[in-house]
Amino acid sequence: MAEHSTRERILDVALGAYGTDGFAATSLDALAEQLGVRKQTILYYFPSKQALFDAVVDEAARDLVRVFDEEASRGLRGIAQVEAIVRHVFRLAVSRPELLGLVREVTRPGSVTAERLAGHVAPTFDRARDFLQREMDAGRLRSSDPDMLLLSLYSTVVGVATELEVQRALGTPPSLRATVARRQELIRFLRAALAPEPGSA
Amino acid sequence: MAEHSTRERILDVALGAYGTDGFAATSLDALAEQLGVRKQTILYYFPSKQALFDAVVDEAARDLVRVFDEEASRGLRGIAQVEAIVRHVFRLAVSRPELLGLVREVTRPGSVTAERLAGHVAPTFDRARDFLQREMDAGRLRSSDPDMLLLSLYSTVVGVATELEVQRALGTPPSLRATVARRQELIRFLRAALAPEPGSA
DNA sequence: CGGGTTCTCTACCATTTGGTAGAGCCTGCT
DNA sequence: AGCAGGCTCTACCAAATGGTAGAGAACCCG
């Protein structure tokens, strides 16, 4: 965020551009102009456009995983833990919307980089799945297929967060108040879906 | 789906390509090769690449809206109606995955075509919102902000469907049986989230 | 058959793209 | 001062891209 080295500035600007416009639609020249630098400077730090993209994905994945792992290491249980992470993702969507934009760009059927991201986040996903399974067994979450539950949670949260971003891009930027209200609604929605049935342990 | 006119074949192939690879990454030459036709033939039917994309969006939006409206016109109530539509979207994800891919491509922050799609689906969204509000008032759905609920439903279903597509693109294509199982899990998930609280009308 | 329309072709163009080669600058070190 | 290395520049290039111009084939209708 500060006046870091050129290399870091490149990664930063590229993350934003790839996140909003996509990889193919972002030329090195466009990035260079945004940076106030010649494109050859970019190619000095990164041997090719693809290498730059990979580096951006690596960095973003590291950030994402860190956010999740930090929040997961607090040892909360059941819905409280899920809620905490959802709040975190929303905070991320407000403070660093480019991150979710990049996730959107990478996890696309045609993307060749999906595996790269998957490699980074797989351990975190595994841990999340284990957590869900454990909490279901303990009766603190409605029991269901943990894989599917994880997928639903992921899709819902990222989807809603991204949708807010789309609305911002379109004519109707949601106010901060509206965003907060929506987050609370979403949490209520998830809470209802996750609450264990009355008759369980 | 059949051996239709060249124009229809172009629209068909373009839909698939734009849906998986995105607009920017799909060149007219690539489309032409896939069609067994010269690119100038494409430009004969559509004055520019952008015009072709617009036409593809228009057609896809019409298809999407039709599917929703057909299903909504059966007059089901409460969760049953929501379920029916979710099933429909899943069927769509299996039979015409390109459609959801295109939605994904268009509803991206950087997309200039988002408004175009929005124009098509807005009436359907309005009707859906009205439906949700009505069913909440009647106590057949858990009461919450209908806008948020709609957003959550949309994000969850499209997100999960797209995710299945991504997994198919990656190493682990889910079997049809697994897909069906997941759909049932998803419906259970939504059902729990939507069920009216015990103490309501 | 003849004339016009519909369609697809060959040929070409200007621009943009990712990428290379190599010269110069600036900074810090001896 | 001088030199070395890190960094950014000017100058190019080959390929691909979206798009244009116009010829010719195939078809329909009289």
Would you give an account of this structure?
The structure is a homodimer of 201-residue chains. Chain A is mostly helical and 201 residues long. The first copy, chain A, has a domain at 60-194: Tetracycline Repressor, domain 2 (Orthogonal Bundle). In chain A, 75% of the residues lie in helices and 0% in strands. Chain A contains nine helices and no strands. Chain A has helices at residues 6-21, 28-35, 39-45, 49-72, 78-95, 97-106, 114-137, 146-169, 176-194. In chain A, α1 crosses α6, α2 crosses α3 and α4 (49-72) runs parallel beside α7. Chain A is elongated. At the A-B interface, α1, α6, α7, α8 and α9 of A face α1, α6, α7, α8 and α9 of B. The structure holds a DNA duplex (30 and 30 nucleotides).
In CATH, the topology of the domain at 60-194 in chain A is named Tetracycline Repressor, domain 2
Number of strands of chain A: 0
Number of helical runs of chain A?
A: 9
- Percent strand of chain A equals under 5%
The low-confidence runs of chain A, each spanning 5 or more residues with pLDDT under 50, are none
